[in-house]
Amino acid sequence: xxxxxxxxxxxxxxxxxxxxxxxxxGKINALVEKMGGEILVSRMWAEQRLAYPxxxxxxxxxxxxxxxxxxxxMEELNYACNISDDILRFxxxxxxxxxxxxxxxxxxxHEFAGDDDSDDTGSDDDEEVSxxxxxxxxxxxx
Length: 142
Prior knowledge:
Blueprint: E1 3-13, H1 14-19, H2 21-34, E2 38-54, E3 57-70, H3 74-83, E4 87-94, H4 100-107, H5 124-141
Antiparallel strand pairs: 1-3, 1-4, 2-3
InterPro entries: Ribosomal_bS6 (IPR000529), Ribosomal_bS6_sf (IPR035980), Ribosomal_S6_plastid/chlpt (IPR020814), Transl_elong_EF1B/ribsomal_bS6 (IPR014717)
GO molecular function, one term: structural constituent of ribosome
GO biological process, one term: translation
């Protein structure tokens, strides 16, 4: 079966994350790797008040992870996340292969150098014309 890139958003128990950040986040990575997956990016997204209480928790730590995993293992990963005490909620989205590089670069905090040059406001031809105009203006002034 083919391996796909997935985006995983986890809402973690803020109390447990506050006591042991590397341990709680490491459990997420360990779950994916246990299923034979590869972690591409794993980082904290935000810590904020929840819209509604989840199991008595009013605050949650949002953890964003991009990983590569065979589609047949997703059911096992769903089950493992459901029984984890550290994970309050989770969501997995299969990513379009054309967007993976851009999403990972963004998650890592890098600017993606895509093919389009939308930042280029002028063309080289415009610069050449203005240079010629400047030369003519200098000659006319003499």
